[in-house]
Amino acid sequence: MQDTLLEPSIVSFERQHIPGGVVLSRAEGWPHRPEDWEMLHTLSEGMVALQDGDVVATAFCTPFGDRLVTFNMIIVADSHRGRGLGARLMEALIALAGPRAIQLVATASGYPLYRKMGFVETGRNLQHQGVVSHIPSPSGIASATPADAAAIKALDAANTGLDRAAMWDALLAVSCVKVIRAGTALRGVAACRDFGRGKVVGPVIAPSADDAKRLISAHLAEHPQTFVRLDVPASSGLGEWLETCGLANVGGGHAMLRGDAPIAASAGVYALASQALG
To answer: Model's pTM, two decimal places?
Structure first.
């Protein structure tokens, strides 16, 4: 039997597989650079399907504490679809997740499989992007300092119910971070970093939509005529305002959950770190 007729082998994703992952994501029209794959690989356990040494499918499981994981970068090459490879990868990820709840953002093509595997839709995420128009710099916004790291992580945990400290360590190393202060306390935070075709703003955590807009505006004001992306929950109510900033709604995905997610003390997440990380 020719090797090409054999089923792809599924093994742990290693750094050497990143170039093949980039090829897959670009074929899907996703903008991820090698550096974006590197960050996700660092934060995650990944699986890769190999055929004759070539990467033909990927899937990552990113842990956020001991109660929830997020699945992401689930991609199957067009040449290998319809052969059950996506289901095999999902089963491998579910085994990695163990008893923890699982969240993901589903594309239209992946949605039916995830429904079959026990995921339920919890909302919609919207992708807004474009070249930023001139945005005035708002008042009352400060730049974060290294001393703010612990408070940023605590604010995130209060608003997500998750332990995303490792994610924030990675973000703080490569991001410009804006904050809203109330005395010595932090009330809001927004990160901005290089991603894909330009910049991505997120996460954005704030006590109100108006505060979220001010945090986002502080970043947009620093990047006129720059391509910027935000991924926001449809429930955030920011969509129409983002359009006025030059960031068009170009689609999005289905937020899905399997199991019981931790309950957050607050509900102030106005933008995701990315579709992959939530």
So the answer is: 0.93
